[in-house]
Amino acid sequence: MTDLLERPAETSPLTDPVDEETRTGRWKWVVAGIAVILVPIMVFAAYTMFLMSMLGSGGGTASSCTVSAGGVATELTVTTSGGSTRTLTATELGHAATILAVARSLGVSERGQQIAMMTALQESGLKMYANSSVPASLDYPHDAVGSDHDSVNFFQQRVSGWGSVKDLMDPTYAARAFFGGPDGPNEGSPRGLLDIPGWESMSLGEAAQTVQVSAFPDAYDKWEGAAQQIISSVGGSVSCDSSVLVGQAAYPLSPGFNMTSGYGPRDIDVPNASTWHVAIDLQHWPNPCGDPVYAILPGTVVLSSDLWLSVKHPDGFIVSYLHMYKSQRLVDVGDQITAGQQIGVTGNVPPSGGCHLDLRINKNGTTNPAVAGLQEAPALGAPAQYAGYVNPEEFLRLYGIEICPPDSCRRP
């Protein structure tokens, strides 16, 4: 695949002038049945947990997601601030994995994840509660039976305000209701965490109490360390439609893609084409245009030009997706997107020699120490104009994704 150097008019205002892809060979075979390797945080027996429904943007259209807790341990002992301990079972850790997977699919920060975990630990010990005062709740899977008003599930959400019995006995719905936000199932009433102005600047316990309105407002604080223990120990993966989400990140194309041009210097004989490539090119060779493209991380769309679609992550770095036709994009400037959300389809916007996705990362402005520590292209010999660009393969490894494993991906 050969792409000519972009004309000045195509230069992104967010990033430096861009070099484009070169197809270095013609492949006459199609890779079939490629498995995507999911990397769990802890190596334990994996099992499939629940089917999720997540609201799409705007109209509330549901898309089916499968959550598997690849890093759930058989048990985990956590310690409160007072020094007491509690041993959580695999079932309870499974509920924790569901909460974390929902949080990550919504782009909720680790601080928000910790607040949710503290809340569930205090309210239920991460048990899925039915309620003897709500007989219908006993008809759904549960771990224990309580009798506090009409409260159910691991967040002890009340049937009289938070939703139907059927909904609230669904662990995924319960987690989505707790976080709320623009696409939350309760539409801001009762308020979920993301519906509360300034929750990020509150203490963790105060934020939990603002959601729960508990009679014991100081009870959440003692679980702060224990919640962090769980987040560090429990891994989770989410598969939404054809995308694959690992922890907080997603693969940009559905399984079975190839890398047709890598990051770094390249030897090409095309006039005016750059000899340095600050991206990786991905495609399902030799498929035509139209492959769904998925956001690898959450963020805000900050640029949508003829050639570029750029998304700014909450940590400040920018992920850019090139060559999608603008008319076929599903998002625009200002839109908030989540990891694994489809944002468009592969295209052949010139200068380009074929349908593919160009994926590139610019770390300028990041507040993430791990991302900030990645080596920039000029340190490897690239022209100074490419300052800030980092190797997308190394970047994705920070999030547990090996974009092109040697046993399941053809490189140039």
Produce a short descriptive summary.
The protein has helices at 90-105, 110-124, 165-168, 171-179, 204-212, 224-233, 369-372, 392-397, and strands spanning 48-55, 62-68, 75-79, 85-89, 129-131, 144-146, 151-152, 157-158, 237-240, 243-246, 249-250, 258-261, 264-265, 276-277, 280-283, 292-294, 299-304, 308-312, 318-322, 336-337, 342-345, 357-362, 389-390. It has 412 residues and is α+β, with helices and mostly antiparallel strands.
Strands, helices and their partners?
Layout: E1 48-55, E2 62-68, E3 75-79, E4 85-89, H1 90-105, H2 110-124, E5 129-131, E6 144-146, E7 151-152, E8 157-158, H3 165-168, H4 171-179, H5 204-212, H6 224-233, E9 237-240, E10 243-246, E11 249-250, E12 258-261, E13 264-265, E14 276-277, E15 280-283, E16 292-294, E17 299-304, E18 308-312, E19 318-322, E20 336-337, E21 342-345, E22 357-362, H7 369-372, E23 389-390, H8 392-397
Parallel strand pairs: 5-6
Antiparallel strand pairs: 1-2, 2-9, 3-4, 7-8, 9-10, 10-11, 12-15, 13-14, 15-22, 16-21, 17-18, 17-20, 18-19, 19-22, 22-23
Q: How would you describe the overall organization of this protein?
A:
With 412 residues, this protein is α+β, with helices and mostly antiparallel strands. It has two domains: 8-35 and 252-397, Glucose Permease (Domain IIA) (Distorted Sandwich); 48-235, no CATH class. 18% of the residues lie in helices and 22% in strands. It contains eight helices and 23 strands. Strands 12, 15, 17, 18, 19, 20, 22 and 23 form an eight-stranded antiparallel β-sheet that branches. A hairpin with a 5-residue loop joins strand 3 (75-79) and strand 4. It is elongated and about 75 Å long. The model is unreliable at 1-72 and 236-242 (pLDDT under 50). Residues 1-20 are annotated as: Disordered. One of its GO terms (molecular function) is metalloendopeptidase activity.
